[in-house]
Specification:
The protein contains four helices and no strands.
Length: 107
Amino acid sequence: MRAAPVLTSMRRAAWTLLLLNVADLVITFLAIHAGAHEANPLAKWLIETRLIWPLKILVPGFVILGAYWNRLSAHVDELAVRRVWFVVGLYSLVVVLNISTWYHYAS
């Protein structure tokens, strides 16, 4: 794969990851408000201390910065792009599960 399409794919994956993180956060709060409980102890602590907001924005933000940093580099790693898309796929499943949980508690 040529460098330009790989960089475009990395940027799209990074932005998708950011959107999924925001969706995960919003849907999690909706589910908790509807009566669900956070099962992950670390996530529960982050929610209680309100550190979840910066974390959910900073982590994918660093991925986006990395995607743009690669643009300046002559070397583009296609495997890294595939790994980010894999994480996007897994995160999509997390968001679907959260939607299901929210729907269960909201109805």
